[in-house]
Design goal:
Length: 331
Amino acid sequence: MKKTVLSGIRSTGNLHLGNYLGALKNFTEMQYDYNCYFFIADYHSLTTHPDPKTLHLNVHNVLAEYLAAGIDPEVATIYVQSDLPQLPELYLLLNMHAYIGELERTASFKDKVRKHAENVNAGLLTYPVLMAADILIHRADYVPVGKDQDQHLEMTRKFARRFNNLYGVEFFPESQPFEEKKEMVKIPGLDGTGKMGKSEGNGIFLNDSDEAIRKKVMKAVTDSGPTVPDSPVSEGVQNIFTIMKYVSAPDTLAFFREQYANCSIRYGDLKKQLAEDIIQTIAPIRERINAIYHDEAYLARVTRQGAERAQASAEKTISAVRDIMGIRRFY
Ligand code: TRP
C-alpha cells in the first residue's frame, strides 16, 4: 500500500520561480510514489482575508498554476477545501477536544494577535484544528510543510493522540513531516540576501510579463566588481550565479564565472543573460497557466473528480469517527 501524503496550498499569492523550481518539482515527482492529496485551503484564507470579490479568483489562479506546473489530476487528487463537506464536521468534532489554552499559545496565533488586534476571531484561534482536520480527514502519513508549519503539525499529532487515547482506539496516525530525500532546491532572491519569497518582495512570479522580469533582474543587487583575479564572490552576485545554475545552459554559467575570475565581467551583460534565461524558463509555463485558467470545462472536470475522490476518502474517516464517538442515526 502506498503511503498517503497530503499538502495544503495557500489560496492567496502566486507561485514564484523558487516555488516552481523547488517545492513544485518535488510535488510532481512525489505524486507517482505516494497516494497524494493536494488541496487549496480557501477556508483558511477567511481567517484573515474574507473577501467575496477575490476568494474564488484566488482559488482559480492557484489551481491553474499547480496544474500547469505538473500536478496530474489523473494521478494525484487535487481539490478545493470547501468542496469537502466532511471536513467542517471533523473540524467541529476535533474542536471538542482542543483546549483554549493550547490554542492561545500557538505561535502563529500570538503573531496574529500582535499584528491584527482588531480581528482576533475564533477561526484564527482554531486555525490549527482546521489544519489538523485537513490532515486527519485522509489519515495522512506525511505532510510536506515548511518550518513555519512545524508547530501546527505537532498539534495535529497531539490532537490525533488525544483522540486515540480518549476513545481507546488506534485510529488516527501521527502524521509526520515529509522529509525530502534529495536536497531541496533553494532559489535565492535578487535583493542580495536570503531566499526568494512572496513576503520578502523579491520574487519573480510565474505570471510576470517578460518586461517585468527584465526590470526585476536588472535591479538585482551586485557589487562594484572583482578587481583581482579569483576574488571571493559577494552574496548578491553568488545569488545570480545560483539562479543561473537552474535556468541557464551550463556553458553560459561557466562563461560568466570565467569572466568573473579574470575580472572582465560586466554585470549588465550577466543580468541581461539571466533575464532572458528566466524568461525562457517561465514563458512556456506562463502560457500553460493561461490556457488552463481559461479552460473552464477542464477545470470543472478536474475539480469535480478531485472532490469526488477526496469525499470518498473523507467519508470513510468521518463515518468511523462518528461511530467511535457514539454518534448514531435513528434511521
Ligand atoms: N497552514 C498552511 C500554510 O499556511 C496551509 C495549510 C492548511 C496546510 N491546511 C493544511 C498545509 C494542511 C498542510 C496540511 O501554508
